[in-house]
Design a protein that fits this description.
β10 (about 150-155) and β11 (about 155-160) form a beta hairpin. Helix content is about 25%, strand content about 25%. The mean pLDDT is about 95. The strands form six sheets. An eight-stranded mixed β-sheet has the order 4-1-5-7-10-11-14-15, sandwiched between helices. The protein contains nine helices and 20 strands. The longest helix is centred in the N-terminal third of the chain and has 13 residues, at about 65-75. It has two domains: about 5-215, L-asparaginase, N-terminal domain (Rossmann fold, 3-Layer(aba) Sandwich), CATH 3.40.50.1170; about 225-340, Rossmann fold (3-Layer(aba) Sandwich). By secondary structure, the chain is α/β, with parallel strands linked by helices. It binds aspartic acid. Aspartic acid (ASP) binds near residues 14 and 89.
């Protein structure tokens, strides 16, 4: 490639964008001055532009904002080689998972990152996260991007975004992907694990043309709940949660490999909800491992009641995928079928 790669940084808010003013108060950092603040980025030999959205704490994130972020990528897709999205850590895995399901024909890197310590604080983890995210978003081999998918970079590891969860409120290594290996590991060099990266069909073969257009599925149906099972849950609690007005989907966080009580009242409450058109998806409340509804009778009963197997999906991926599929206006059968398929590498191996 003869010209420098070009990267668009999309700043959405969160701790990474903070610095202390002279009174010690945390105020938003001016990302337009990124090159002045961090001369190191000049050595990357990358053209960088910054798109600033009104900064928010990511706890205030909403599907409407996911769509706005996706539109910024779509509207600038042709002009840039890659995108870095700076985002608060609290809900980063939800936004990044949502974007992975929204994009159709993505063939350029979209790398999410953030920080646990504000950028304006000397010991910040944001500087390394940002610089490496830029390097990853601009990395090419034979003229094609090395990581053409939605990913999340944090503390020396690059993950498939829809496999991640925030696992620590304290540690600098705040994210993990327990059911899928990293896409890259960063030490002195960035070691890309290309066998773990998803490439579109025909990628790199002679005559391969990158899809020029990126389209965005922008409808989300938010009539979903996450129901975490616990010993002692009562029939009244379960039935009331499943009777929320307008409810269309449930991410059901079960025990172990997807197990739940076998009491008649329990299974009847679930089958009644399914008969009313509600999609119930079984994911495990363990941070690691998969649902297998045929291993124990306690899981098999759920399967027979019509509960959908979420395999090894994170809750973040399952919620955003279900909202997106329901938003497409699909039938209950289609939603069940597609929830069980891996659409963007979010489940299975
Ligand atoms: N509350 C912040 C946010 O998610 C935390 C962070 O950025 O790390 O926006």
């Amino acid at each position: 490639m003869n010209r420098k790669p070009s990267i668009l940084i999309i700043y959405t808010g969160g701790t990474i964008g903070m610095q202390r003013d002279e009174n010690g108060t945390l105020i938003p950092f001016d990302f337009n001055s990124i090159e002045r603040e961090f001369p190191a980025v000049r050595h990357l030999n990358v053209d960088i532009d910054v798109f600033k959205m009104p900064p928010i704490d990511s706890s205030n994130m909403k599907p409407e904002r996911w769509v706005e972020i996706a539109h910024v990528v779509r509207d600038n897709y042709a002009q840039y080689d890659g995108f870095v999205i700076l985002h608060g850590t609290d809900t980063m895995s939800y936004t990044a998972s949502a974007l992975s399901f929204m994009f159709e024909n993505l063939a350029k890197p979209v790398v999410f990152t953030g920080s646990q310590i504000p950028m304006g604080i000397m010991r910040t983890d944001g500087r390394e996260n940002l610089i490496t995210a830029i390097e990853i978003a601009s990395a090419q081999r034979d003229g094609l991007p090395i990581v053409p998918e939605v990913s999340l970079y944090f503390q020396n590891r690059l993950f498939r975004a829809n496999r991640t969860s925030k696992v620590s409120a304290e540690a600098l290594s705040a994210f993990d992907s327990r059911n899928y290996p990293p896409l890259a590991e960063v030490g002195v060099n960035i070691e890309y694990r290309v066998a773990n990266i998803h490439y579109p069909d025909g990628w790199g073969e002679q005559g391969y043309m990158m899809p020029a257009e990126l389209t965005v599925n922008e409808k989300f149906d938010t009539n979903v709940i996450v129901l975490k099972l616990f010993p002692g849950i009562s029939e009244m609690t379960l039935r009331s949660m499943l009777s929320v007005s307008g409810l269309r989907g449930v991410i059901f966080e079960t025990f172990g490999t997807g197990n739940a009580p076998t009491a008649e009242w329990f299974l009847n409450a679930l089958s009644d909800a399914i008969a009313r058109g509600i999609a119930i998806v079984n994911v495990t409340q363990c941070g690691e491992g998969a649902v297998d509804m045929e291993l124990y009778e306690t899981g098999l009963r759920l399967k027979n009641a019509g509960v959908i197997c979420g395999y090894d999906m994170t809750t973040e991926a399952a919620v955003t995928k279900l909202m997106s599929l329901l938003g497409l206006g699909l039938s209950q059968e289609e939603v069940s079928r597609m929830m069980a398929l891996s659409l963007r590498g979010e489940s299975g191996q």
